[in-house]
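Folding follows sequence. Below is one example:
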Amino acid sequence: MHKKLVILAGGASSRMKKESVAKNLTTEEIVQANERSKGLIGVGAQGRPLLDYLLLNAKKAGYEKIYIIIGEQGDLFKEFYGNQNANNNFNGLNISFATQYIPEGRVKPFGTADALWQAVKQFPELNADEYAVCNSDNLYSAEALYALRRTESPNAFISYDRDALQFSSERISRFAIAKLDESNRLLDILEKPSADDLEHYKDVEGKIRVSMNAFKFNGAMVYSFLKNCPVHPERDEKELPTVLLNALKEFPNSTVGIPFSEHVPDLTAKEDIADVKEYLKKHYPVLNWQI
């Protein structure tokens, strides 16, 4: 099983920086929300970042080599997790940093597929191995991260039961949904589904499945699709679901959706901060790295 995890942390965090009427936030939390990458916001014990908890779960799941993709102004990550570009030791994890540079003519990063493309260019060993990829602002369980290591499918993603996610129905309705066959192999991803679409996208368990950006990739298989990923016509970004779908055209049945039914804490906007803090208090009363 592979032991490499790539964490996407180079985004602009534009929704988090928007003005908000979120209650119960301290002045310091508002400052951090406006200035820090989302995964570095201090929602944990002693003000530790959400990313600490994701790294803890990654260690529990058996990952050893972590690549954090940061933005051009991402020096704060190095203050938390090691000041070298590669091979920092953080609680037994080997942490390296890839930088997602903004192309000339743009004011914000070019999306998740571009982030991963820049990472595999900076760390070519990823192209000769399998690895997992996830967001820095979601807290995936150790069990879900381990499932990405365990699967024998070249490519995979965690396909979450939409009804188990503890978000508002309006927020959930915006999630893209996955169409899987009877063996949970990916057939299609539908953005902005209508109510009529939902019945046709249920899996063999009768569940509507969504991705929360937790993937496993075969580096050699997806390399050319990362390199040549087209720009999404509406969001003007290059996105990892596009990479998966394009790879399917050349390699049918190469991607499975691994079914999971659990909540995934998410730091998208200031309104999420209080909820994530409560979740961590309840489920992670102690941040224990002795595994």
